[in-house]
Amino acid sequence: MSNETGPTTGLTVRTGSIDLAYETFGRPGDPAVVLVMGLGTQMIAWPDEFCQQIADIGRFVVRYDNRDMGLSTHLSQLPAPRPPAVLLRRVPAPYSISDMARDLLGLLDGLGIADADIVGASMGGFISQSFALHAPKRVRSLTLIMTSTGSRRVGNAAPRAFGAAIFRRTPVDREAAVETAVATFRRIGSPGFPFDEVAVRSLAERSLDRSFDPDGVLRQLAACLRQADRTSGLAHLSIPTVVMHGLADPLVGVSGGLALARAIPGAKFVGFAGMGHDLPRPLWPNFVDEINSLSRASLTRT
């Protein structure tokens, strides 16, 4: 790895039968911050500038593609069940959120990282919680963004957003896929901040150039739909935690974030007015400040 602070790209690590693609920012000797992205979203959705801002506070930032996404292994040999069938429990999920958490453990093992500040967004928050429950000693701190506990009683989507996620048609070509991404983020994004169509369109185009696998998204979605309720387990965690949530999130309702903050002893809840289910650029300094404060506290604690 490079000793430079800029991004290091084109890296992979093997964990079990999965190759995980990852990129880094900062110096490997600095305390690690691992960024875990959400459903159907590649690691580049953690913007370079955002990653660099975390690296600039003296952290070694790792972002990676989850299984079935981006340049990581795509499990094309597994079925891609339709969401209604999964919801009705007519078919099983091809793999679980716990399996994806074990991927994260394999990433840390492969990189020789003993422990890290884990930052998870949306499905990445599900994975991060599961990882913390499975390997708490590997987690210095938890930052959970626009996510929930796994309980179906909290964090429910607004009907329009839920329908768009569950019943949307698969785009048939690149142009349609880009337009679908733009329309989706316009629907679930932050109403209190300007919609940056140029940035959303650019991210969609770059993501499609890296990989296009609608079946992989369905397999990830199945894992989300069949995830366990982690509430009781979270009560036993002793990990510094901050929960950040948009107060206008239509996809994972704010009740999910509030339930997380109640479930994890000592967790701090930060709600952002006007934020939906995305990472609006004007809030990046707030996110970085919260991650930094929690990271510093976790280092002092250890």
Describe this structure in words.
The protein is α/β, with parallel strands linked by helices and 302 residues long. The chain has one domain (8-301): Rossmann fold (3-Layer(aba) Sandwich). The chain has helices at 48-55, 83-87, 97-111, 123-134, 159-167, 174-188, 197-210, 214-225, 231-234, 254-263, 284-301, and strands at residues 8-15, 18-25, 32-36, 60-64, 116-121, 139-145, 241-246, 268-272. The protein has an eight-stranded mixed sheet, sandwiched between helices. The two termini are 26 Å apart.
In short:
The protein is an alpha/beta fold. It is 40% helix and 17% strand. It has eleven helices and eight strands.
Shape label: globular
Tell me what portion of residues adopts beta-strand conformation: 15-25%
CATH superfamily: Alpha/Beta hydrolase fold, catalytic domain
Radius of gyration over C-alpha positions, nearest whole angstrom:
18 Å
List the uncertain runs. none
Tell me the strand order in the biggest sheet: 1-2-4-3-5-6-7-8
What is the fold-level CATH name, i.e. the topology?
A: Rossmann fold
| N/C terminus separation | 26 Å
